[in-house]
Structures are given as structure tokens and as C-alpha cells.
Amino acid sequence: FHFLQGGKGANQAVSSATLGAKTLIIASVGDDIFGKEAVESLKDNAVDTSKVMVVHADTGMAFITRTNRDNRIILHEGANHHMQVSKALEAIDGVAGDVLICQYEIPFDIVLEGFIKAKQLGMITILNPAPARYLDKTIFEFVDYLVLNQTECELFTGIYPTHKDDVIKASQRLFDQGVSKLIVTMGSKGAVYIANEHLIEVSAYKVKTKDTTGAGDAFVGGLAYGLVKHQNIESSIKIASAAGAFACLHEGVEHAMGTIEDINKIMEGIK
């Protein structure tokens, strides 16, 4: 049994910050020891925590069962669902940057209102709707990039993708609902990007996997880093894929995120 810091938003923020992007997290933690440790861990990983809210509740937790090939996660939302829309919007308005990433570990109304505010401020928006629950198509007008893994893609479209053709079929169902740009990650099978008639396949980088727990979050953080650094979408996805691959080399999550030097070595095939 291991106790480690994490959470999708936290992991993605650490991934982005470790790569070298100036990163701020808007989050809610409980007034308990777990909340204090979560904030300290973020600070240790160069994430700006000035907009983290402390509420009278348990800090959110995830219980992860891991096998040699995969993992299963049970969530206790805790303080995540005590975040207030007004405070979140105030934080976004006060520190608006280049990219806003949201997940489904906070209430949907905050995600929706946050993206509306972000687009008003000219930001790029990335939605990673995990933990996977539902997709409300009213949000798609304000989403630049929808990032799904295989399980999420199956839940939202009925198609479990294992290759490009599956992603094409799934994308048609999502585009009908208003999605404009879709990225689907498929683990060792790589990632596919589709927007209009534009399709990009990025092969997975081959590594000796120890733990896949934070790979998806590392990918999203790497994608944001690439976009912040004004890379084109193909280069950004390659950075994201390398970041995900590097995270698989180490057990745990936040401390498994790679620097840009680590990611460059993965991309160059250096062990």
C-alpha cells in the first residue's frame, strides 16, 4: 500500500509545470492533513497554488488498484465538489493565461462557466472529461480540444477504439454533437487527432512500463505545454505522447512526470 499525491487536475498541472510551462491550479482541498500535503506537493513541483481554495470538507481521494497491465480507480470527491463557481471565475479572470484545462473531478457547472470565461479571454480550452460520466453537448461550443482515452470514448460513443478507423467512426458521432477537435489516446497503440478533414496519427513511444496510472494526465499536461510553446498540433501531440510514455517508466504519479530534457530523450529514442 502506497500513499501518494495526485488527482487529475493536480497531475496535469505537475506535468505541464515540470516540462517548463508556467502553471497555476484552481482547485479545492479540505482543511485536513491531506489537503495541506496536496498543496505542498504542488508547490514542490513548481505549480502556483495561490488560487487553491481550502474548505471545511475531506480532501478528495482516489483508491487505485494496480496490476502489471492496467489499473482501476475508485474516487471520493470530497472537497472537489465544494468549489464555488464565483470564486473559480474570479480566479480565471485574474490569472488568465494561454490554456485552460478542465476535468470532471469538479462540478460540471464550474467546467462550463470556466470555459465560457476562458473563451471570452481568448484562451485555448482543453476538456478531459474524466472521471467519465456524461457529455453535455452545451459545452462543446467552448471546447477547443476534447481529449478521451479508450474507455471514455466507448462510454460517450459506444465505440472502443483500437485503431484509426475506430476513432474516425467515434469522431463522427461526437462531431454531430458539436465537437470540433478530438484527440483519442489508445495506450500502446498511440493517439489519433481528428478535426474536419484533418487526421493525424502519432505512434506510441516504446518504453518498459512500470505503472500506467499517471500516463493520461502526463499526456494532457504535455499537450498543454506544446500549445503554450506555440507548437503545431502534431508536435504538441508528440510531446504529449512522450510525456505519457515517460510517466510509465516510474511508479507513482506526480514524481513520475518528466522534464523537457526527459521527454526529448524519449522522442529521440534514448534509453
Describe this protein's structure:
The chain has a 6-stranded mixed sheet, with helices on both faces. A two-stranded parallel sheet has the order 1-2. The protein has a two-stranded antiparallel ribbon with strand order 3-4. The chain has 9 helices and 10 strands. It has 271 residues and is an alpha/beta fold.
Features:
6-stranded mixed β-sheet, two-stranded parallel ribbon
Explain the layout of strands and helices.
Layout (H helix, E strand, L loop, with lengths): L7 H12 L4 E7 L2 H12 L3 E8 L5 E6 L4 E6 L8 H11 L3 E5 L4 H13 L3 E5 L16 E4 L1 H8 L6 H12 L6 E4 L5 E5 L2 E5 L12 H14 L4 H15 L12 H9 L3
Parallel strand pairs: 1-2, 5-6, 6-7, 7-8
Antiparallel strand pairs: 3-4, 8-9, 9-10
Helix pairs in contact: 1-7, 3-4, 5-6, 7-8, 8-9
> How many β-strands, per DSSP?
10
Find the CATH superfamily: Ribokinase
CATH level-two architecture:
3-Layer(aba) Sandwich
In angstroms, what separates the terminal alpha carbons? 29 Å
Hey, roughly how much beta strand do the residues contain? 15-25%
Q: Mean pLDDT, nearest integer?
A: 92
Round the Cα radius of gyration to an integer and report it: 17 Å
Summarize the helix and strand pattern as letters.
HEHEEEHEHEEHHEEEHHH
Largest sheet: 6 strands, mixed
Within the CATH hierarchy, at the fold level, what is the topology?
UDP-N-acetylmuramoyl-L-alanine:D-glutamate ligase
Number of separate structural domains: 1
Strand line-up across the major sheet: 5-6-7-8-9-10
Number of helices: 9
